Amino acid sequence: MVYTVSQLAERLGATVRGSSEKQLSGLATLQDATAEQLTFLANPQYRKYLSTTKAGAVLLTAADAEGFAGTALVVTNPYLAYAELSHLFDRKPHALSGIHPTAVIADDARVDASASIGAYAVIESAAQIEAGVTVGSHSVVGARSVIGEGGWLAPRVTLYHDVRIGKRVVIQSGAVIGGEGFGFANEKGVWQKIAQIGGVTIGDDVEIGANTTVDRGALSDTLIGNGVKLDNQIMIAHNVQIGDNTAMAGCAGISGSTKIGKNCMIAGGVGMVGHIEVCDNVFVTGMTMVTRSITEPGSYSSGTAMQPAAEWRKSAARIRQLDDMARRLQQMEKQLATVTSAADTSSDA
To answer: Residue 342: helix, strand or coil by DSSP?
Structure first.
């Protein structure tokens, strides 16, 4: 995997400043790149490394390329350019078509001849594996589940029954799709289980991270839209709906029947209560607890920012006093209103 600067520039539609025939064989950070590697500058806080980088070439904006002594590929968005070129240097093994002899395939399952089924994988009754799909070793595809064209399941992915996955979906190791939702009815202190008879429907071009769980619906399906990106260790409860192109960072937890709109960004550690709706184009910052519906696009936060522990303890003590302080303030406002009213009456006389 060796490319000249001119080859990469042609792929990106970039302008080259410097040596266009320099050969590059990998990607690295500004700090660590060698003369055979390509790097990029996307975050201004790393600009200080630009003057000392040993990289063979750097993806830069026109402004950052001014005065740079090395070879630059000038692009509008260096991070997006890096994302595109990263696939050229990806060393992930490509699975060969065919079924490993240790895999267990139900007689009535349908597996396309171009698919790859890894060692000890299990494909259950009436499941469908479409063209170009890779099912990693020790993965399980449950009864009547469908994986669309070009899907890729890493080793140890579990799909329960009646899970429908669109085209080009990537699911990382340890993910569980279609597990039973947390549904129970309480009778005199005893929890009675509710059968979760819905499924999970996932759109095209979705990515689901390691150890993320998407529960099946209680009645209707849990729905994940096209282009959704879910990080590692996320919990999606039953009957949640996530709109197209929404991205969610690690350790977020979405309670049952919550509806999240399109083009949202949910940062790490966010929690959402159930049965609320979040409109399109919402950004929720890290560790926010969303307790009610969001009806206007924009950025939302909750909680307090980090501060030294001693200061935080003082602030926490004051927070505990807020209710008493509010009552005292109300009393003072009433007293002030009485005094003001009496003064006004006296002046009129």
So the answer is: helix
**What pTM did the predictor assign?**
0.90
Contacts of 59 (CB under 8 A, 6+ apart): 14, 38, 39, 40, 41, 72, 73, 75, 78, 81, 82, 85
Active site residues: 238
pLDDT above 70 covers what percent of the chain?
99
Edge-to-edge strand list for the sheet holding 122-123:
104-105, 122-123, 140-141, 158-159, 176-179, 213-215, 235-236, 253-254, 271-272, 289-290
Position 237: which residue type?
A: A
Which residue is associated with the tokens 């299990």? Answer: 122
- At 252, list the tokens: 């977020």
- Report the pLDDT value the prediction gives residue 347, as an integer from 0 to 100: 66
Q: What pLDDT is recorded for position 348?
A: 63
**CA 141/CA 232 separation, integer angstroms:** 20
> Per-residue DSSP letters for 19-59?
-TT-EE-EE--TTT--TTEEEE--SGGGGGGTTT---SEEE
